[in-house]
Design brief:
The protein is an all-alpha fold. The chain has a domain at 10-55: Alpha-Beta Complex (Eukaryotic RPB6 RNA polymerase subunit). Helix content is 37%, strand content 0%. The chain has two helices and no strands. The longest helix has 16 residues, at 10-25. 11% of the residues are buried.
Amino acid sequence: MKLKDGFDSNYRYILVAARRARQLSGGAPALVNTSSRKVCKIAQQEIDAGKVQYLQGEKTAPPQPATPEDK
């Protein structure tokens, strides 16, 4: 599978498509005109059309264990 434009990995593309497919199956309207009835295919078409984008969140530091001074 060729890497899609705007994505750093194929795994991220699948995650975005799966999340959008869940939104569509939950009743969200499609952002593209399509004859397809399958939510996975509609999600892929929306991404290919540039209607769905993802924002990469900030990485957070792992929680630090409490020290005796914190108590």
